[in-house]
Design goal:
flat
Length: 154
């Protein structure tokens, strides 16, 4: 094999490796999917959102139906107000739908999971999801376990 052919194969291998790394970075960063353009926005209040971030998926029954579009602090009760952009194809979510901050996969990416209720009325633009469950923070659970263990040893 000539030197030029060997350099060509090495170059192709390096380009393929860089493309694979870029693809992995996009998948891990959750940037590979397009934003929801035709959506309606609803809000939900959480005591703790953990590592939830803007553009995190909103799912129902494991299917992505939207994205987190904004996260801010409520100045009155210091809770996190999360704005969800939900695709208009899913405009039949009952008003008693619940929302939870969940963790997926080994890397611990967080997302909002919706669980539909049974009301006959549906969520509309600007509505608020009242039933929420905050993120489970592993460090707090470990701290509580260690504290209770220390109290039991006394």
């Amino acid at each position: 094999m000539s030197r030029n052919a060997l350099e060509l194969w090495v170059g192709l291998f390096v380009v393929a490796g860089l493309a694979a790394l870029a693809m992995l970075a996009l998948r891990v960063g959750n940037l590979s999917t397009v934003n929801v353009t035709d959506a309606y926005k609803v809000t939900a209040s959480f005591q703790n959102v953990g590592g939830l971030h803007v553009k995190a998926p909103v799912t129902m029954a494991g299917v992505k139906i939207g994205r987190v579009s904004n996260i801010q602090i409520d100045r009155e009760d210091y809770s996190a107000i999360v704005e969800l952009s939900i695709d208009r194809r899913f405009n039949n979510l009952p008003t008693d739908t619940s929302a939870a901050v969940l963790t997926s996969g080994l890397l611990g990416a967080q997302y909002v999971g919706l669980e539909p209720g049974g009301e006959d009325t549906h969520l509309k633009q600007g509505d608020r999801i009242e039933i929420t469950q905050s993120a489970v923070v592993l460090e707090q659970l470990i701290g509580q376990m260690l504290f209770s263990k220390a109290q039991g040893d006394r």
